[in-house]
Amino acid sequence: MNKIATIRALKYDGEVRRTWKAELLEGTASLSTFVGKFEDAVVHPDLGLIEKGTLSYEYFWTDRWYNVFRFHEPDGSLRNWYCNIGKPPVIEEGVVSYVDLDIDVLVWPGDDPIVLDEDEFIINAARYAYSADVLLEVENAKRELLKRVASREFPFDFN
Length: 159
What we know:
Elements (H helix, E strand, L loop, with lengths): L3 E7 L5 E12 L3 E7 L4 E3 L3 E3 L4 E7 L4 E7 L5 E9 L3 E3 L2 E13 L6 E3 L1 H10 L4 H19 L9
Parallel strand pairs: 1-10
Antiparallel strand pairs: 1-2, 2-3, 3-6, 4-5, 6-7, 7-8, 8-10, 9-10, 10-11
């Protein structure tokens, strides 16, 4: 894979939700780690103001139904983690694509995790007729993420 990749978050029907560029730091058969840098300040409804220069370390597993972003302030200090529950990514030709299944887990250092957008998930599960298998994978992914946060397993082992 190229050092610079395009990351694509897709809706269930394949429509692109958002794209951005990130640099590949390390890639194995099951985990690819990227870093992206916010070129502009962004106001996010759940994360508040993300300053220009904020770094996003992004972990994509090819065998897990979630990905994890670890944000660092421009000064290098840990900001938070943001986890997307979604289908495992497809990685090819410098592009990482994953289907975002709406539910997110937000973790601020020292606080309990916050599960977000479960209402949006319910609406889209009906709209797109998610299969029983997809519903089960989403529930398993949410449970695994919350367990990893609680036990400070990688990538939640950073202070």
